[in-house]
């Protein structure tokens, strides 16, 4: 990881401190499973390198036993899987995100709407679905060309993104169609308010 052995002391706390998010907890849980079951466990983690950059690793742990078969420690390997993680993220982006606008696409929308309906059915909650399309969008493509149409769609996506917040799910269904899922809205007025703000932003 590029830490200077002259200044980095490999105490338990120091080693755990280089792991991002809940990584330290997940290591402890993984190694507790090794102790409990005697089997090998691996966990994917994000860690901070000595130069401050972040990388992805897989940490494999297995029990170290004494002559009588008692577990007295751990040994294992740490492998840098940053390139693999980047490839996986790129594949997910291609599968679930619109390359033009960067918004979620129809496939991810289908998954999200199914999850939302299931959640509402289970918890007795409610959700709202807003569907938007652009009037006379075909005329833009026909008169100014598809490059202009793409530019318009990108701009509209940016404007809509500035209106919705992190609790809303925004996607481009395709063409000039967009959808927004509002989870757990308080009343119809809240939905109408968002619809009005969207219309005003795009206008």
Strand order of the largest sheet: 1-2-3
Question: What is the first-to-last residue Cα distance?
Answer: 52 Å
The percent range for strand residues is 15-25%
Write down the secondary-structure element order.
Answer: HHEEEHHEHHEEH
Description:
It is a single chain. α5 runs antiparallel to α6 (146-163) and α6 (146-163) packs antiparallel against α7 (188-202). It is built from seven helices and six strands, in the order ααβββααβααββα. The longest helix is centred in the middle third of the chain and has 18 residues, at 106-123. The radius of gyration is 25 Å and the shape is elongated. The chain is an alpha+beta fold and 203 residues long. Strands 1-2-3 form a three-stranded antiparallel β-sheet, with helices on both faces. Strands 4-6-5 form a three-stranded antiparallel β-sheet, with helices on both faces. The protein starts with 11 loop residues before the first helix and ends with a helix.
């Amino acid at each position: 990881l590029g830490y200077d052995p002259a200044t980095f002391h490999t105490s338990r706390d120091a080693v755990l401190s280089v792991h991002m998010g809940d990584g330290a907890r997940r290591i402890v849980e993984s190694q507790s499973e090794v102790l409990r079951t005697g089997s090998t466990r691996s966990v994917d983690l994000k860690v901070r390198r000595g130069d401050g950059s972040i990388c992805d690793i897989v940490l494999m742990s297995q029990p170290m036993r004494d002559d009588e078969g008692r577990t007295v420690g751990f040994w294992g390997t740490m492998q840098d899987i940053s390139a693999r993680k980047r490839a996986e993220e790129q594949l997910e982006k291609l599968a679930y995100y619109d390359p033009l606008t960067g918004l979620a696409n129809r496939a991810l929308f289908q998954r999200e709407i199914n999850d939302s309906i299931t959640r509402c059915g289970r918890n007795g909650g409610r959700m709202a679905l807003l569907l938007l399309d652009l009037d006379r969008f075909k005329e833009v493509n026909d008169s100014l060309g598809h490059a202009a149409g793409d530019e318009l769609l990108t701009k509209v996506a940016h404007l809509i993104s500035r209106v919705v917040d992190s609790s809303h799910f925004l996607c481009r269904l395709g063409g000039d169609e967009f959808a927004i899922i509002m989870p757990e809205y308080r009343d119809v007025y809240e939905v109408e308010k968002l619809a009005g703000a969207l219309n005003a932003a795009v206008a």
